Structures are given as structure tokens and as C-alpha cells.
Amino acid sequence: MLTYARAQSARTGIRAIGPSGGAALRLLAAALDAKAVVEIGTGTGVSGVYLLRGMRPDGVLTTVDAEPVRQQYAREAYRAAGFAGNRARCIPGRARDVLPRLADGQYDLVFCDGDPADSGFHLTEAVRLLRPRGVVCFEGVFQEGRLAEPEADDPQTRAVRDLVADIRESDTLLPALLPVSDGLLCAVKR
Ligand SMILES: C[S@@+](CC[C@H](N)C(=O)[O-])C[C@H]1O[C@@H](n2cnc3c(N)ncnc32)[C@H](O)[C@@H]1O
């Protein structure tokens, strides 16, 4: 059940992916027959439950969050949703410190939902981590509408604009922007 993870999200005010974005993540994980997924930004575990539902029954979700208490919520959410403890590897720490420790080319899907200001770093690391034909996804690229507002010039929005441009201009990536949740920007590694 997702009820537990969403209730924790509502109680704590930690933002979580919406049902449409979650369904897209689940579908992607299933279409990729994903055995290994990296998530940046565990939160209370809502997106993790969607990913685990789409992955192979023996697949492992590696999920990173700078706030260990959130991973405690997430672990409880995975358990409440019926997933064994060994299906999720929760790594506490900042993405900038943790991602470089993960192995090259071993992951089917990288889901980025951490600090948008670090999007460029997340993209570089995702391309390194993905196997060929793997997929990277960024949640929240609409920035609650700010992406399309010319006067919006905060560092977060600027970082997401740079991310969109980098993905569009990349020879390595084949992108698609899904209008689900707050904008899910996906790209296949060629
Ligand atoms: C929007 S929440 C994630 C929600 C979750 N993906 C979901 O849909 O249920 C963003 C998370 O990113 C984490 N975060 C923010 N900056 C981070 C960083 N530099 N490294 C790792 N995690 C970070 C926050 O602690 C927060 O839990």
C-alpha cells in the first residue's frame, strides 16, 4: 500500500511524486525489466514504492538521501507495501558524496528527485551509472510553473533550464518530457 508513505509525506510536509508521475515511473521500471535502480531523494518512500512495483521481483532499489530520518520513514513504507528489506539499499548522505561511489554502467534507471540546483551533477553521474539503453528521469522540471516564466531567475530554476538544454543538445541522450506530476523529463542513454 502507498497509504503509509503518502501519510508520512502529508504529516511531515516532505514533497512526494504524484500518482501520474508514480505510474510513469512504475511503467518505465517494468518496461526496462529493471533489476537495478538508483534514486536520488528518498523522501518518505512514495516514489520508491512505485519503482519497486515496476522492477523485477529480485531487483534492488539504491536510494540516496541527505536526511537519514527520511530513509527510516521510507524503509517503513517499503515494508508496509510488502517489500522485503533486501529490496532497498538506503544510503544516507549527500548525492555529491554518495553517487561517485556507485559503479559505472550497472543501472537500468536513475530517478533524480533531490536538490534541483545539483541537476547538472546528477545528469553527469546518471550517464556514467546507466547501462546502454538505460533511462534517466528528473522529477519537477516544471518547477511549479517557474520554468516557463521568463522573469523567474532563481538559482534552482536556472539550474533546471541548463539541465533541459544539456539534455536537448546531448548526442548521448534521447529525451521525452512527460507532462505528469510536476514535469518528468526522461532520456534514454543511446
Ligand atoms: C522531494 S523529496 C523526494 C521525494 C521522493 N522522491 C518521493 O517522491 O517520495 C527530496 C529529497 O531530496 C533530499 N535531498 C535534498 N538535497 C539532497 C542532496 N544534496 N543529496 C541527497 N538528498 C538530498 C531531501 O532530504 C528530500 O528528502
UniProtKB/TrEMBL annotation:
PROSITE patterns: SAM_OMT_I
UniProt keywords, alphabetically: Methyltransferase, S-adenosyl-L-methionine, Transferase
GO biological process: methylation
Keyword S-adenosyl-L-methionine: yes
Chain segments annotated as coiled-coil in the UniProt record: none
Top-level taxonomic group: Bacteria
CDD domains per UniProt: AdoMet_MTases (cd02440)
GO molecular-function terms, A-Z: O-methyltransferase activity; S-adenosylmethionine-dependent methyltransferase activity
Protein name: O-methyltransferase YrrM
Protein species of origin: Kitasatospora cineracea
Lineage: Bacteria, Bacillati, Actinomycetota, Actinomycetes, Kitasatosporales
